[in-house]
Amino acid sequence: MTDSKLAIIILAAGQGTRMKSATPKLLHTLAGIPIVSHVLATARELDAAYTVAVVRHERDALVEVIVDELPNGLVVDQDETPGTGRAVEQAVASLPADFDGDVLVINGDTPMLDVQTLAGLINEHRHGGASATLLSAFLNDPSGYGRIVRTPDEPEQESAADTAARASTPLFGRRVTDRNGRVDRIVEHRDATDSELAIAEINAGVYLFGVSELRDLLPQLTMHNAQGEKYLTDMVELLRRAGSEVTVLPVAESWLVAGINDRAQLSEAAAKMNALIIRGWQLAGVTVQDPATTWIDLKATFEPDVTILPGTQIKGATTVARGAIVGPDTTLVDCEIGERAVVKRSDATLSVIGADATVGPFSYLRPNTILGAHGKIGAFVETKNAQIGDGSKVPHLSYVGDAHIGVDSNIGAGSIFANYNGVTKSETEIGSNVRLGSHNVFVAPVRIGDGAYSGAGTVVRKDVPAGSLAMNVAPQRNLEGWVATHRAGSAADVAAQAALAPQNAVEASAEQPAERTGE
Ligand code: UD1
Ligand code: CA
């Protein structure tokens, strides 16, 4: 049900300079989707009355992704005044004037956030009565983050009611009052003194404000700081000076609020997310032999009793059916793998593997490869736009492009579907129960009828009727003694002479029987 008292603002206007990338930071991916899409998808689950994304840098590319994830979201373009405070100020201005609920602000670069954490924050805010509630975390290495500055005061004794309340929201470690005192303000890393830099509690970049407080105080933000930006984080000090309460909730596990600024942080977050995804599938009945070398995207799905062997990447919206075995060392991108199929040491994209089919080792399946049930694509075979029917096999060393193959046919080792004449691509059609010899070339467009055969080395340039044997191999000629005359003295010649010597001797003795008997 829509939460009519909730608006969500997602900050996505920053430049992401620390990524050092031509791709906008928030469009770098983890678990197969952009950083910002994780945040948008999580926000969507809260079903807020309004969801606003603020964009500026590479706005068109961002908007495309935002609209994908949040078709009903609002997009606000940040002006030339920099800073998270300015972004929120403009987003708040886009909300209807009569909206009087809570505003959840989320940095667009915190992809690990989950909906339980956000729901917990909203719940705490609505029951706690503070003007703002925000998430923090305690980090061993807090560098780069804003620090939570608290005024040390008398440690309050936690009441039994508080303990019970805390136990009911286990995501949050400690309430504000039981750790290092009241919150005064947030200081950004670049503005912090040495003693402030030593603070391990960081601002997570996830905040809940009453909209009226934002409307009142955001215009008071200044740009008097190291970066010359309007910091949203200065709202804490403004609220405190106005005599309002601010509650800071440390999350129990700091990875939940990790912000991605550079590629080192991206890979750390990606590894954590991958570990969570794998664990989820393991608990759902999937064997993952080596989680450390297995990568599974968020959108991939598996039935129980799938086995994934080491070194395997399952990307995109790949689906793997019951009993299939994938890996080792296999990459699947947007593939559909049938029940009990086996895909070993192979690379496949946008392909469908039928039930009980086998692929690999060392097969390369390019888009629109469709292998039927009990079919086979074997070692060192490349396929592209190839429909290979039930029970049909391409066992060894072949290229199959732009092909339709019926059922129960066999393509000989080392065959090439020559689909490209340098200008256009054409298709090859092969019927059912066909037996083709080794090292054939099918010069497309060409058709081979049901039940046909071909000899080894056939170059099929014209259609083969059903039931025929096609062959066009030229008769073999052996030019005897060619090496002795053209490569005299070479290693080949020496070897050939040695091989021929006994034979020559026999021939010589056959020619001179008298001499021999005379001995
Ligand atoms: C910010 C916080 C910091 C906190 C950290 C948590 C501020 C001033 N600092 O720092 O206290 O510890 O997040 O991860 O808020 N953005 C805009 N418009 C802008 C600038 C940024 O929309 O003008 C967006 C960015 O796209 C990003 C988010 O806001 O998604 C945070 O910006 P970023 O530059 O990463 O802030 P941090 O330096 O990490
Ligand atoms: Ca950040």
Describe this structure in words.
It is a single chain. This protein has 519 residues and is of the alpha/beta class. It has two domains: 3-257, Spore Coat Polysaccharide Biosynthesis Protein SpsA, Chain A; 263-470, Hexapeptide repeat proteins (UDP N-Acetylglucosamine Acyltransferase, domain 1). It has twelve helices and 37 strands. The strands form seven sheets. Strands 13, 14, 16, 17, 19, 20, 22, 23, 25, 26, 28, 30, 32 and 34 form a 14-stranded parallel beta sheet that branches. The protein has a seven-stranded mixed beta sheet with strand order 5-4-1-6-10-7-11, with helices on both faces. Strands 12-15-18-21-24-27-29 form a seven-stranded parallel beta sheet, with helices on one face. Strand 4 (48-55), helix 2 (59-69) and strand 5 (74-77) form a beta-alpha-beta unit. The longest helix is centred in the middle third of the chain and has 21 residues, at 263-283. It is elongated. Residues 174-180 and 515-519 have low confidence and may be disordered. It binds uridine-diphosphate-N-acetylglucosamine and calcium ion. Residues 107, 109, 259, 261 line the site of calcium ion.
